[in-house]
Amino acid sequence: MSGEAAFKIEGVVIEVLPNKTYRVELANGHRLLGFVAGKARQSFAPNPGDKVRLKLSPCDLSQGRIILETKSI
Questions:
Q1: Is this prediction's pTM over 0.85?
Q2: Of 17, 55, 26, 57, which Cα lies nearest the Cα of 38?
Q3: Domain at 7-72, CATH from 3.40.630.30, 2.40.50.140, 3.30.70.120, 2.40.50.100
Q4: Burial of 24 from C-beta contacts in 10 A (0-12 / 13-18 / 19+)
């Protein structure tokens, strides 16, 4: 996933799943699978209700990498 090709969106974590994966709901009501990758897996764990920023590949819009946690709702 190239940095220029990927785009960033915001969503809210609605469900915590096994293996550091999360169900995230976007503002338009769509739900997708979010995951934390790399070194962030050790220190980053959003809870349901937390706003997160996701990086999505234009090829697969059903899942994305959680890159940033914003403040809770």
A1: no
A2: 55
A3: 2.40.50.140
A4: buried
As beta bridge partners, residue 26 has 11
Distance CA 30, CA 33 (A): 10
Distance CA 32, CA 43 (A): 22
pLDDT in tens, 50-73: 999 999 988 888 999 998 766 555
Phi–psi pair at 5, nearest 5 degrees? -80, -30
Convert the pLDDT of each residue in 3-54 to its tens digit.
678 889 999 999 999 988 999 999 999 999 999 877 666 677 889 999 999 9
Read off the DSSP letter of residue 40: H
